[in-house]
């Protein structure tokens, strides 16, 4: 059984305490990793702090070139990384709509290359006979990254690459459920980067708490639940750390009357069920006009019944297991609540028999806002379909949520769909699509889905502080 150490200051560091990593398709432990102590966290933060002085002063062109090397390194080791992602998350190699482990790994490479080429030049505010005033952006210092289990390598890259591109150094704490692809990437990256620029410690929530509370940490970037994000925000307040929080989403989609259902049904299904619905920006609430409600339900059921569910390493599998047993129990409880509240299970609604944490793709009709499955983020292969009568009603229902990560509108009249979409209370709205993030466009939430953004120039700016320089001229 393979074992993965921590990487601190460029060195592989083991511990006497180990974490078992389970393959959710089988329920069996397939690898272990070193479990960090408080001392390991403190050592990693110190190493990052010591590395910051040299790394932040390194010529920008050199940092850019090294990040391009990291992107190439991911592609060079893609087969190994893809297999690790499949084994620790359960997602298929290809996946529904091509959204699987291969996309995760190759997306991580692409994100690295695009981010490497983003520049933050000085801005000239004034340049005349009296003064030269410029705004420059400076790296913050040590960035603490805490990542979730659903897209472990890709989200790690989202956090890490922007931070080091701006001249910061990083200590990352991946989810204890899926630490391996991230640990292997950090090991590989330390063959290219100077010691201390990228460090990894592994463990449960107490290790993450130790990391984000470290006085030398200047910024925390976290992707995960709203409840955990609030605790991180409280901890960060003691030293006023910078924060980027990408928290829970309960994304709504509105299908406008007159929409070509044959055109959109497959895309809507994939938007809701890729990665088994275990994506913050999955479509999680579907509002359909009463004139097309039954017809769209029928089309979605037909798609669901043809989906191949199984071990992600097997050919042609589209959906794998839920990543862990605790999350499967959450999904089961929400489906049970939906039945109690009058929902009709159109398909699925049960475990897949056998080993692993499998659950059938499930569609639920007859619910409304106020039902648990509608109001809470299910984070699993279940979609509630809600009927509406008036478009204004659909907008009101979509906005009736404490979350505001993403949303979408589907229809034949793009201008009308855009007009509706601009009324949704979310950080990103998609028209005739859902969840299509990209490395050059900002992404983040509003309301209880967090604050701050990632990706592109705006995301890179979040990794810096502003310094205004005014030169008085005689």
Automatic annotation (TrEMBL):
Instruction: State the EC number(s).
Output: 1.2.1.3
Q: What class of enzyme is it?
A: oxidoreductase
Q: Where in the numbering of this chain does the Aldehyde dehydrogenase domain appear?
A: 17-469
InterPro entries listed in its UniProt record: Ald_DH/histidinol_DH, Ald_DH_C, Ald_DH_CS_CYS, Ald_DH_CS_GLU, Ald_DH_N, Aldehyde_DH_dom, LUC3-like
Query: Which keywords belong to this entry?
Result: Oxidoreductase
| MF-aspect GO terms | aldehyde dehydrogenase (NAD+) activity
Superkingdom per UniProt = Bacteria
Q: Which residues catalyse the reaction?
A: 246
Q: Name one Pfam family in it.
A: Aldedh
PANTHER family given in the database record: ALDEHYDE DEHYDROGENASE-RELATED
The record's family statement is: Belongs to the aldehyde dehydrogenase family.
Q: Write the protein's name.
A: Aldehyde dehydrogenase
Q: Which organism is it from?
A: Marinobacterium lacunae
């Amino acid at each position: 059984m393979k074992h993965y150490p921590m990487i601190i200051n460029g060195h592989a560091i083991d511990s006497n305490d180990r974490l078992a990593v389970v393959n959710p398709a089988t329920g069996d432990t397939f690898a272990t990793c070193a479990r960090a102590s408080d001392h390991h966290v403190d050592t990693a933060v110190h190493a990052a702090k010591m590395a910051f002085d040299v790394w932040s002063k390194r010529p920008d062109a050199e940092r850019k070139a090294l990040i391009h090397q990291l992107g190439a390194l991911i592609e060079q080791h893609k087969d190994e990384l893809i297999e690790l992602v499949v084994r620790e998350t359960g997602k298929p190699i290809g996946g529904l709509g091509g959204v699987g482990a291969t996309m995760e790994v190759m997306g991580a490479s692409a994100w690295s290359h695009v981010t490497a080429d983003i520049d933050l030049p000085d801005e000239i505010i004034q340049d005349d006979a009296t003064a030269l005033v410029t705004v420059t952006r400076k790296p913050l210092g040590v960035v603490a990254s805490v990542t979730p289990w659903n897209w472990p390598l890709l989200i790690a890259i989202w956090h890490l690459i922007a931070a080091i591109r701006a001249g910061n150094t990083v200590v990352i704490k991946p989810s204890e459920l899926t630490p391996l692809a991230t640990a292997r990437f950090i090991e590989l990256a330390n063959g290219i980067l100077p010691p201390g620029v990228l460090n990894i410690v592994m463990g449960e929530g107490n290790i993450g708490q130790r990391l984000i509370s470290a006085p030398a940490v200047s910024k925390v970037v976290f992707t995960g639940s709203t409840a955990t994000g609030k605790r991180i925000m409280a901890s960060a307040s003691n030293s006023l750390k910078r924060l980027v929080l990408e928290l829970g989403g309960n994304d709504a989609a509105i299908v406008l009357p007159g929409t070509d259902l044959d055109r959109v049904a497959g895309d809507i299904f994939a938007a809701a069920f890729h990665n088994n619905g275990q994506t913050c920006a999955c479509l999680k609430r579907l509002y359909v006009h009463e004139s097309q409600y039954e017809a769209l339900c029928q089309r979605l059921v037909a798609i669901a019944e043809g989906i191949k569910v199984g071990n992600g390493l097997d050919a042609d599998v589209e959906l794998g297991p839920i990543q862990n047993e605790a999350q499967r129990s959450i999904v089961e409880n929400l489906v049970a609540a939906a039945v109690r509240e009058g929902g009709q299970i159109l398909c699925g609604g049960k475990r897949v028999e056998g080993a692993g944490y499998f659950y059938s793709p499930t569609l639920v009709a007859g619910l409304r806002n106020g039902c648990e499955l509608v109001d809470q983020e299910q984070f699993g292969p279940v979609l509630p379909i809600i009927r509406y009568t008036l478009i204004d009603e659909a907008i009101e229902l979509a906005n009736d949520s404490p979350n505001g990560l993403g949303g979408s509108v589907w229809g034949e009249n793009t201008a009308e769909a855009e007009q509706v979409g601009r009324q949704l209370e979310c950080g990103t709205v998609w028209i005739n699509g859902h969840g299509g993030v990209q490395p050059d466009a900002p992404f983040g939430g509003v309301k209880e889905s967090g604050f701050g953004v990632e990706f592109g120039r705006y995301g890179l700016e979040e990794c810096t502080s502003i310094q205004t320089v005014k030169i008085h001229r005689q």
